[in-house]
Amino acid sequence: MRMAQYFLSNLDEWVNMQKRTADLFKSIDQEIKRKGDALDRLELILATRAAFQHMSRTIKAFDQWLQDPLILANLDKQSLLEVWNATFNMLQALLELDIKHTSMFREYADKMLREGKVNPLTMLTMARSGASEDVGRERRTPPPSITM
Any residues with CB less than 8 A from the CB of 51 and at least 6 apart, and which? Predict the structure, then answer.
């Protein structure tokens, strides 16, 4: 019984941490909206990176959760279907965002390169890393191979 209490306590702790995190990001979003034009680009970058880092942590935890024997043996099909549907919707939204903004930035970068308006320090950094000919090639990992 003690193990069961420990397990349930861990679940409660995780849920409470996620609720606090949701509240934190809601307040960050409100602050971003409140600042409007006075908002600094760096603030947006940091907030977005923090959100991605937390999303990554949550996704990793979800993946581990779906490998837990207790979940595998006991979680009902309807709950799994709910998780799949939400996961699929988030994946599609993320892919659409990535396609849109990567394409947009590619066009912008091409224009800036043609006009010679790219920061020379950026170009120097790219040249030093050997990326001058393979700009952006390693930005993305290969697509997953999934079989069912």
Answer: 25
